[in-house]
């Protein structure tokens, strides 16, 4: 649930690229039609000469060797001699009209020397492969070893071997990547959807040479992201165009540009071997994953780390070997996507858990409960962690879910059920930007407001923060306000990794006591008495001992001539473990999915989903439920319909035809059963809801497919032809 | 050519080639931001407008076809669609909101079609309105309230 629903429905609500100053130029980007090529000539003189063109930019306008990225800075703003993926930006223009901009793009002269694309991540990591970057094609590696896996597997009563390939899922936010650059005298305003306005500003400062304080980035609101707008998208090119043209520029991608050049979910290729004893106790897990990050790292290294940390699941393994490899290829760019690498490995692991349970002859939920990791830790990589007592209650709740009639099993349709129980790290692994700055202030409008650079993308951060403010000060909706999503306020870190809403609420709670004192002190200054004599309430401050219906002083009057504000800082909880990135704080979730498989067509319909998130007490229940249902829909797409297939570095779809985002007709009822009790010692007291539902529902659907077919799917989304083959072979 | 029609209840006209697509013309000539081209090929529903009572993808509709037509965009439907808006709000049916105007137009078409429309039929009319955020759960609940 979000605020301003009526405005959004009626089209009065404005997104960041909707409006541009009068006289703003139109930006357009020239993109490579080749996935891998050397640029042997790039001549923009004819384009510059087109009347109405105010700027043409190429890599010549970028500081030599400039690259951006999160941890690994490897991405050029505009192709620097080589293009490494289809749709890579080569040049950009700013012109008075769209027609002129298009004519200018057509007038840019580029010669490409086409190079063979590297498209198979396994091949990319081989010795013979052409290196796409100076350091070779291994973008990142992750290894972890505990015990002797080979010996333990040998000694196991039951073992399973499993492989799973997962899709290049596309985010398909309806709002396309776009924004507006407004250059001034020695400064720049940049409005474009972003998860971390301060990070965007930092990169733009390095790119343009402007001091950070002379750049103002606005990143909120966002018309859908799911991680797709987490990395910089149009901001660097927009900044270059605006500064060169010395005019405001508006640039919005078309859907075909976004499909070709936008961030996608990392396809994973997983092979695992797992074992258990005769009594159903897990013995060993041997887990290999190769992920395709495409041309640039983006969030790939963090995605791989989260994937591998989540590979052992919520279970206790006496011995574990994890090996993850992230390969550069010429298959677009993969980066952050809700579920963040974990959904891939969790799907494979939960399939293996079901296979072992069946071999051991133990009920699948009972098998999970038997093998749950200890509540007190250590974590999946042996790290210390915040205790999570919610795993066992989740297992119990999963077992206690009422049976649901599975629809219409008959000669044509066959029904199946799958369950999953998972946990995922929240916030960033060791050393990530987990801390946050924020501020509580009383404005002259009489509103107590939270100031934070966290952004709203529909997840309900605004609604939750306002609810937290109302609670903390005992006031009404008209007494609270927000200033969010821009660099004019303190750096609260990225709105990602399910942390945004949780951090916003914690900022309010952490600063509340000091702010209440500051409000009391101001009331005492104005009305006499001591700070303790006053408490906040609807409309203003009340004398604590003599509570009337009306405040003794209204908030607006209180604010007059005063500067009532409190800076708040949340310190990160750090984990350091021999250089391995890992989490301290985990969120758990279980799910159950029902499917029907059509014997005639091989098509799979999902007929019901239960989600059991353990996130503490939701502040805004409708917003919380919305996160679960939305995540379930993306999980369904991941398992059953969505994949942007690539051949020789080119995608099979150019737009939304040929790529199937679930519609209302594809979605079954989603029942949400939140577990609201967290451990009393829990230092955080609530968990983010953004990802965890997706992480649990996808493996549950995958397990339901195995339930029907008897063998685990080899790839997601499940191919109806494969289903038909399996059904045929079984007859 | 000059094309005349009524737009949100008022006479309107624009200069366009007859084969030009309506969606960008409406959003740029009349500053109607609700008409959003998010795919341009009729797959997402973000560009929906009501043409003579029917919900239509304005990204596919050519300008020459709307001469004399009665067109409503989401901006012009706020009053008639008030019960829908209230129900969608009550159920937390909207997240980022980018799909919302297109959704409202599709739903308004059902609302204006009269009282015979059943909730299942309304849902069936929404398969052309993609919403990537919500999983449609709140939208369904709102439909059940208004049409159930
Ligand atoms: S823009 Fe018209 S249907 Fe997508
Ligand atoms: S609310 Fe974001 S697309 Fe529907």
Brief summary of the model shown:
With 731 residues, chain A is of the alpha+beta class. Helix content of chain A is 28%, strand content 25%. In chain A, the strands form eight sheets. In chain A, strands 3-5-1-12-9-10-11 form a seven-stranded mixed sheet, sandwiched between helices.
Structure overview:
The complex is a heterodimer of chains A (731) and B (148). In chain A, 28% of the residues lie in helices and 25% in strands. Chain A has 731 residues and is of the alpha+beta class. Chain A folds into 3 domains: 5-115 and 177-252, Aldehyde oxidase/xanthine dehydrogenase, a/b hammerhead (Aldehyde Oxidoreductase, domain 3, Alpha-Beta Complex), CATH 3.90.1170.50; 339-426 and 582-730, 2-Layer Sandwich (Aldehyde Oxidoreductase, domain 4), CATH 3.30.365.10; 436-570, Aldehyde oxidase/xanthine dehydrogenase, molybdopterin binding domain (Aldehyde Oxidoreductase, domain 4). Chain A has a 7-stranded mixed beta sheet, sandwiched between helices. In chain A, β19 (436-442) and β20 form a beta hairpin. The longest helix of chain A is centred in the C-terminal third of the chain and has 28 residues, at 500-527. Chain A is globular. Chain A starts with a helix and ends with a helix. Chain B has 148 residues and is an alpha+beta fold. Helices cover 32% and strands 16% of the residues of chain B. Chain B contains 5 helices and 5 strands, in the order ββαβββαααα. Chain B has helices spanning 22-29, 82-90, 100-112, 119-124, 137-147, and strands at residues 2-7, 10-15, 48-51, 54-57, 70-72. In chain B, α2 (82-90) crosses α5 (137-147). The chains are: A alpha+beta (731), B alpha+beta (148). Chains A and B meet through α1 and α16 of A and α2, α3 and α5 of B.
